[in-house]
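Revision sheet: structure tokens.
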Amino acid sequence: MGRLFLLLLAFLTLGAAIPVPPALRAFSKLHLSSSFASHPAIVMNYSIHYIEQKVDHFGFNTDKTFKQRYLISDKHWKKDGGSILFYTGNEGDIIWFCNNTGFMWDVAEELKAMLVFAEHRYYGKSLPFGVNSFKDSRHLNFLTSEQALADFAELIQHLKTTIPGAENQPVIALGGSYGGMLAAWFRMKFPHMVVGALAASAPIWQFEDLVPCGVFMEIVTTDFRKSGPNCSESIRRSWDAINRLTRMGTGLHWLSEALHLCTPLTKPQEVQHLKDWISETWINLAMMDYPYKSNFLQPLPAWPIKVVCQYLKNPNVSDSQLLQNIFQALNVYYNYSGQARCLNISETSTKSLGSLGWSYQACTEMVMPFCTNGVDDMFEPSSWDLQAFSDECFRQWGVRPRPSWIPAMYGGKNISSHTNIVFSNGDLDPWSGGGVTKDITDTLVAITIPDGAHHLDLRANNAYDPKTVLLARSLEVTYMNRWIGDFYASLRKKR
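Predicted:
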């Protein structure tokens, strides 16, 4: 695996490559794919609203505004002793988040909560410049986490001044993935707005050298190693097998046939793209290793990595046999439904506007280093090359990343002065390597979920949930009840 794996993009738009590392692509594609099918366990009734937001909250030379979309459900909300659960929307359509954050719906009645789902600027229908929002870096200049947090603050103020009974109610921020990072950062920067935050699968330390750059891929590898004998070793050996086979005269044709590729490989330089596509598939499986059937990027069986590893039990076979086994493993991800005639190595790409927004964020603030060494992980060795990444960003957007800005803005690991944040992480989730997995103080609490994949705790209750996630959700509700109780106790003292 060469440097391309961590630098070049699977997202293609206008014929140009956008430089997002595969791990970051996988991070965002849980929320960006146009193929998402949402099948919530309960009926989710909400109303759709818009608020006029400033395009630039921090400057004074423009009065330009845009409409930010948000959703409200008040079925279980009580004006007397109630609360407001506020989802800090991330890189995708807010309706998808609403339909796939069943935890909030499950606890709404107990917490007497109004549910609010706020869409992140530049995603879904919240586009500051309409169809021109992604035209160039000048239009994208206002796509930052700071501007998004300011949108959330303005929205909460708006809700409290326009909804009778909401003014003196506690607000709790919740989010997963990047949204979990935003929830934590919102509590840090606006503690007067929210009484606490639940940050699920939030890799707030996946920046600079706060954690080793190889930890993400090591966790992916561990997931495969634990899911079947010799599984990760078979994948580790597959890269050299691909290299050897494609150096043969008919190797490209044979590999295209063996992997049932929709578009045959014709050039040696296409082999790297193939390997990147395979690598990203293993990453996606690690994030979505749920205990029940799911239908996110693809329809998947329960515990999909265990199913994949059934085909990768023996690494000591010929190159051709190993690659045929790799095909069977890939087929679990791309053709579990049995409807695909061939495998499309561009299938994980999307041309949605959301992918453009995320690639810009990755090129500016969200600079997360990744690397592999082929020893502690099952991937080809690849170092993190910030300069090469920066050059790709500049070619695409005319901007260069600021890798030190997020730690400077939000404190890095020096966050002990903050309070009332629960960080939850599943130990199967590769993003847990950049998350808070140990208590920092008695109010900055880490909840680790054994056998938990990417923000499993935010999903709706399921009969196949492991006991570990049921316990995690119970703890999360306990903390939220405590924050709500403290808020009302303080309110009574003031009176």
